[in-house]
Amino acid sequence: MFQLNDRVAIVTGSGSKKGIGRTIALTLAKQGAAVVVADLNADGIQDTVNAIQEAGGKALGVELNVTSKESVDAMVEKVLEEYGRIDILVNNAGISQKVTVQDMTLEDMTRVFNVNMFGLFLCTQAVLETMKKQKFGRIVSLSSVSAKRGGGVFGGAHYSASKAAVLGFSKNLAREVALNGITVNCVAPGLVNTDIWKSLPEEVANNVIAGIPAGRPGETEEIAAAIAFLASEESSYITGEEIDINGGSHM
Ligand code: NAD
Fold this sequence. Notes:
251 residues; alpha/beta; Rossmann fold; seven-stranded parallel sheet; 9 helices; 7 strands; binds nicotinamide-adenine-dinucleotide
């Protein structure tokens, strides 16, 4: 896979023990990057940091609330103190909620947008100055298949809307920073084999699988592999794009 030696990568939401972010962090570290494991969840951060270090990689754990500008700025300051650069930002932290539009409150809508879109904005804005100075940067954000075809068994319309917002935001930013050596891309996973998937009743899971040509949910490694590519030197002429990773459930 693509080499990320000497690169410094921040992965938000990488403290979820069975989540996609942890696998992204492990994968980028395996490819040589020093990885900043940033999350709300202190236990989870330590767990991911330990896993990276046990595999011989470099990691720094930082408690982060993506919805707080103070917290985001403090993280960036800490990373620059420790490593002096930031090459890769993976905006992975995200939340969802299963609720109909009719039952949704404005607080529900605000909570989901606060993390999935406004938090992503704060993290992205906070690394731009450094990436511009370096004349190199890779920003990869997690959208979702539900941005394109509506949510399924897990998410509400606020989740789908926030993940569609991530796509538009990324395309605009890609144009703004293309001359600075910075690329901005998204990955849009379909259903991934995380805890939430395992919690589905068998009948519901079978119905979902019937709509996936590949006949199974994705694995976290399959999402992380695409992100490692978009984070690498080799993807330098790809910007403003999204990669669908969904086993053919949306083409
Ligand atoms: P997860 O819930 O396992 O992990 C999300 C992590 O984000 C958690 O560790 C959580 O603590 C962290 N987080 C939440 N709010 C935060 C905040 N304010 N500040 C910092 N960290 C915060 O989720 P996952 O299933 O691994 O999903 C990861 C990303 O992939 C999300 O953006 C999600 O929307 C997207 N995605 C997931 C799937 C799937 O099937 N699991 C499909 C498509 C897209």
